[in-house]
Amino acid sequence: MEEEQELKDHREERELQIVLLLGLTPPPLFKFFPELLQKFKFLSPFEYPTTPIHQFLKFHAQSIKVMICMGGRNEATCELGDAADFAVGLLLDVLRRISASNRYVRSGLWPLKGEYPLGLKVGGQRVGIVGLGSIGSEVAKRLDAFGCSISYNSRRKKVSILFPYYSHVCDLAANCDILILCCALTDETYHIINKDVLSALGKDGVIINVGRGALVDEKALVRFLVRGEIGGAGLDVFENEPTVPKEFLELDNVVLTLHKAVHTLSSLSALYELTMANLEAFFSNKPLLSPVNYEQEAVTL
Amino acid sequence: MESIGVLMTCPMSNYLEEELEKKFKLFKIWKHTDQKDQFLKENSQSIRAIVGNAAVGASSELIDSLPKLEIVSSYSVGLDKIDLNKCKEKGIRVSNTPDVLTDDVADLAIALILSTLRRICESDRYVRNGLWKKGDFKLSTKFTGKSVGIIGLGRIGAAIAERAAAFDCPISYFSRSEKPNTNYKYYSNILDLAANCQILVVACALTEETRHIVNRQVIDALGPKGVVINIGRGPHIDEPELVSALVEGRLGGAGLDVYENEPEVPEELLGLDNVVLLPHVGSGTFETRNAMADLVIGNLEAYFSNKPLLTPVV
Question: CB 3.0-4.6 Å disulfide test: which of A152, A246, A260, B211 passes with A129?
Answer without folding.
Answer: A152
